[in-house]
Amino acid sequence: MSNNHRLPRLPGEWIDRAHSIEFEFEGKHFQGFAGDTISSALWASGQRVLGRSFKYHRPRGIFSLANHDVNGMMQWGQKLNVRADVTLLEMGMQLSAVNTFGGLNKDPAKVLNHLSRFLPVGFYYKAFHGKRLFPRWERVFRTLAGLGKVNLSTPRLLTPKDYAFCAVLIVGAGPSGLAAALAAADQGADVVIVDENAQAGGSGGYQIGGELAKREATEALLVRVIAHPRIRLLTGIYAAGYYTDHWIALVDDKKMTKLRAEAVVIAAGSFEQPAVFRNNDLPGVVLGSAAQRLIYRYAVRPMQRAVVLCANADGYRVALDLIVHGVMVAAIVDLRAHHQPCDAEVELAAKGVEMHTGTCIVEALPTPGCSGVAGARIAAFANGVADAATARDIPCDGIVMSVGWAPAANLLYQAGTHMRYDDLVEQFVPDALPPGVFACGRVNGVYDFKARLLDGERAGSAAAAHVGFGEKRSVSVPVELESSSFPWPIVAHPQGKNFVDFDEDLQLKDFENAVQEGFDNIELLKRFTTNGMGPSQGKHSNMNALRILARLVDKHPREVGTTTARPFFHPVPMALLAGRGFHPVRRTPMHLRHAAMGAYFMSAGDWQRPEYYARQHKDRLECIREEVDMVRHGVGIIDVGTLGKLEIIGPQAAEFLERVYVSRYANLKIGMTRYAVMCDETGVVVDDGVVARLAEDHFYFTTTTSGATAIYRELSRLNTQWQMACGIINHTGAFAAINLAGPQSRKVLARVTTLDLSAAAFPYLAIREGKVAGIPARLMRVGFVGEWGYEIHVPAEDGVALWDALVAAGSPFGIRPFGVEAQRLLRLEKGHVIIGQDTDGLTTPFEAGLGWAVKMDKPFFIGQRSLQIVDKQPQRQRLVGFRLDQAHGGPAPQECHLVIHDGAISGRITSIGWSHILCAYIGLAMVTPELAKPDQTFEIRITDGSLVVARVTPTPFYDPEQRQQKEEA
Amino acid sequence: MKIINCPINGPRPVSEFFYWGQMRVMPDPVASSDDEWADYVFNCNGAPGVKREWWCHTPSNTWFIIERDTEKDQIVRTYLYGEEE
User: From the centroid of its chain, how far is CA A177?
Assistant: First the structure.
């Protein structure tokens, strides 16, 4: 392919002609230069059709060349929906257009173009109304909808997340943004300025219009910005979303950066808006700014013979740029009936260019095959209506549109800016900005080049002053002399195909029909027509849609208002959003010991705990049963370091505990422990543990594993509020804890400590401090599992040494580690309650069978007043022990299975397990009071719907006289 | 992400904080009727406006009070309990 559309070398062009790049598009070979985008290289090679539209599969070419050409999306291997208008060309690219069936040229789906009258607005919603046809429509839609093809074998990409900070962030490195950056940095602020383009300068680099001085001024600003020690200029990166307190998501092609700024200046500019006329989507119909980008960035002549449709001075400037670069301008068509001629217009008139005012383009005439423009049909235009009688055709191969702009205000909206419609500039401008958010340039309704520089200086200075750098400069920004946007750039046509939204192929009549059907509010209209819901998110359609709706319902655009702009400003690849999962887990000091012993780990809150220890040739249940048997008949060891471990010290420590737990602790003897239940203000059980008294003013106490963080936090809050003379310390992570349990436990412990372990010196429920295996330790004789045992707490760094010492000392007795499952069964045999499993968010201590611990005669404890009220009411439920008949052979009930009595739900199973020592299924169930009588039977409905009979049994099931864990009386 | 000014640690991201709830004065458990007590325990005022709330900076376990305008989503001020001037 020859570079027949490439211009001679231009100063400031983005391409590097020394580096030629070969690539393929739709199976054909092409060549471009380094610095080209895919679209510019194809256009330079004469390729006009770059893709097909979403709904009607119409051929489409370059439209904006500003990252919004959603009909020019390509697939390159595993890379989906590559934006051809901005993606840099790479050597060896093999590209194909998305959304075609069997290739760009053949695409049999283009027949949809001729069926468009059968695809009315809201077609999609209407198709789903009938249930009968739903499956067929679904198949059709699934085939037709969606862009690109996912390669399911794509390897997982791990993308980094970055974090950054600055005083002032400037979004947009055009003339106003650069001026803002300099003003802010000169006042002392640390500035970051970002721009989505590959190079900075914005419109200052391509909107020349015969005034090279503008470009020189922009370049001079850029030189100062780059040299400024307090400015970081980042290109090829866009601000995708604004979040609370100036937290901005910046996206480049590799990663997302979360930047926290102290002030933000939005200098994002504006999106040029298309005119609406028949066939305004043909390849060769381009925005004026797109034509200028093609020329000045990529040195590509957009067309040979152009008709320029305009409604502002920008259009005349584009015409000048076209002429300078060898494009014959056949005519300039101005929608306005009257206007003040600008300098460019005077110059064009002197060149003898044909000009029409009060005239519109009614229709772009297609070439055969609709792959390009053959001419423009123009007609007189008054009061927003074309006069068909005056129509005449002008041959051309390209149409350039420059009829207006819409502010790139997405981030301003996300920040909560109140916008108002300004009649002078015919666009929405910021009315009330949130604190720390500033706007300048076109997004602020300022279009004149010099005025934009002043506006940037004003905003940059104000932003720096907001952060505390310097004084806000007083800058007066001149008022615009003319509107750059035309209020009605829309021409009706009886045959339609005058597109408003190019993403979704919406035509003018679709809006008229939607409003007729009653969707006459901007939010409803958007959803029914799907306007602005395509990949470009309405950047080129929302403004025209708003103007159309305003005219249809006879309202001012300000009354119609805009839809809500949400993050992201621009589609962000999933690969950049997804990242490494971050779910930290806690491990006890002995974790590696458990792993070496074959532990199968489970999650307990944040912690990893051994569920059981796997043994060769034995299944899970067998392993658990052996662990239980070892504790009942020999000695077992379990890591209980995940328990919450707190200490409270001070003259009012006992009083504090009495206020937060339901039991009494003032009378607890030094060296003794007592079970502790905590309620919330509603009288519901929330936690339990053991309180040990070390001294008159010193207690050590435990909480449940899952409750540890929340209980410590809440106790701290209460202490803050009550201001009692005591302090609370959280030792949860600082201490390791091991429970040594079983009939042989005393003998094992005796081998590694000199403490007097006799029942008299160290009785049941006592706490002692001493050395175990040379390690300073606190030992408690508590019996959660119902055997003689010691809970030994040591500093975390000594946990492994203690574990090793106990395992070694226990080896002559066949000591085995046991896991959480064995412990659960052991405690169930003792009828001990697990808070949160046997109780729920409504269970009182009375219902859970813990009423014995509640001392209602205390002056105060949390939940007391509520329990007084609850106590006066009839009990709703009660936790009971039950067992199944020993002959029960079928499937056993599981936790949460329902108790059914007289056809009604009368309770649920909270715990159940097979007890080897009792040779029966035993469990706990929360049931209605009438079922909570001794020997009462009730039925449990299991998963297969059958009923299993259970019998209420007093707890503990095992060793009711507590002989195993206590010394002989 | 919102920034909260912890009275001890200064401005920190909201992800470091734990929200407890609105600060309410407990009625005298002895003097209050059952209905008054139930009202205190169960009925919270969710109407938008300036609320005084308990918050905790979790890494440092610092409890403090935030006066927050729940209608405007703005933090009016933060201070340690009992140090409201």
Answer: 29
Write out pLDDT tens, residues A13-57: 999 999 999 999 999 999 999 999 999 999 999 999 999 998 888
pLDDT value of position A108: 75
For A891, half-sphere exposure in the C-beta direction (CA atoms, 13 angstrom radius) is 12
Sign (positive/negative) of CA torsion A472, A473, A476, A480?
negative
Interface list for A 670-689 with B (CB within 8 A):
681-682
Is A860 within 8 Å of chain B by CB? yes
Helices (H), A267-400: 288-298, 313-324, 343-350
Question: Which helix or strand (DSSP H or E) is residue A729 part of?
Answer: strand A727-730
Q: How many domains does chain B have?
A: 1
The CATH number of residue A711's host domain is 3.30.70.1400
What is the C-alpha separation between A445 and A409, in angstroms, rounded? 11
Nearest CB to A716 within list B2, B29, B61: B61
Residue B71 belongs to some domain of the structure: yes
Q: How many domains would you assign to chain A?
A: 7
Q: Per the structure block, which two tokens stand in for A261? A: 């700024």
Report the residue of A717, A718, A871 to disrupt the B interface, i.e. the one with the largest count of B CBs within 10 Å. Answer: A717
A144 and A115 together in one domain: yes
pLDDT digits (tens, 9 = 90+) for A796-813: 999 999 999 999 999 999
- List the domain range (segments joined by +) for residue B55: 3-79
d(CA A758, CA A768): 12
A305, A398: one domain:
yes
Among chain B residues, CA nearest to A683: B41
> Same domain, yes or no, for A621 and A650?
no
Q: Which chain A residues are within 8 Å of B34, Cβ to Cβ?
A: 869
pLDDT digits (tens, 9 = 90+) for A175-193: 999 999 999 999 999 999 9
Closest chain A CA to residue B82: A721
Contact A243 B1 (CB under 8 A): yes
Tell me if B61 and A682 make a contact (CB, 8 A cut-off).
no
pLDDT of residue A968: 61
3-class state of residue A271 by DSSP? strand
Arithmetic mean of pLDDT, A773-789: 93
Residue in chain B lying closest to A714 (CA): B20
CA A318 vs CA A306, A311, A413, A422: distances in Å: 11, 12, 31, 25
| Closest partner CB to A713 (pick from B1, B56, B81) | B56
- The answer as to whether B37 is a domain residue is yes
Average pLDDT for chain A: 93
Percent of the residues in chain A that have a pLDDT greater than 90, as a whole number = 84
For residue range A281-329, list pLDDT tens digits in order. Answer: 999 999 999 999 999 999 999 999 999 999 999 999 999 999 999 999 9
In DSSP notation, B48-85 reads SSEEEEEEEETTTTEEEEEEEETTTTEEEEEE-TT---
Residue range of the domain that includes A555: 496-575
pLDDT(A1) > 60? no
Any domain includes B32: yes
Task: Examine the domain organization and report whether A927 and A814 are in the same domain.
Answer: no
On whether both A115 and A6 belong to a single domain, the answer is yes
Closest chain A residue by Cα to residue B18: A713
Chain B residues touching residue A864 (CB < 8 angstroms)? 29
Preceding amide of A160 cis, omega within 30:
no
Distance from the B85 Cα atom to the nearest Cα atom in chain A, whole angstroms: 17
Closest Cα in chain A, distance from residue B19 (Å): 11
Which of B63, B76, B79 to mutate against chain A (most A CBs within 10 Å)? B63
CATH of the domain at B51: 3.30.2270.10
Q: Is the ipTM of this complex over 0.95?
A: yes
Angle (CA) A86-A90-A91 rounded to 5° is: 155
Q: Does residue B84 sit within a domain?
A: no
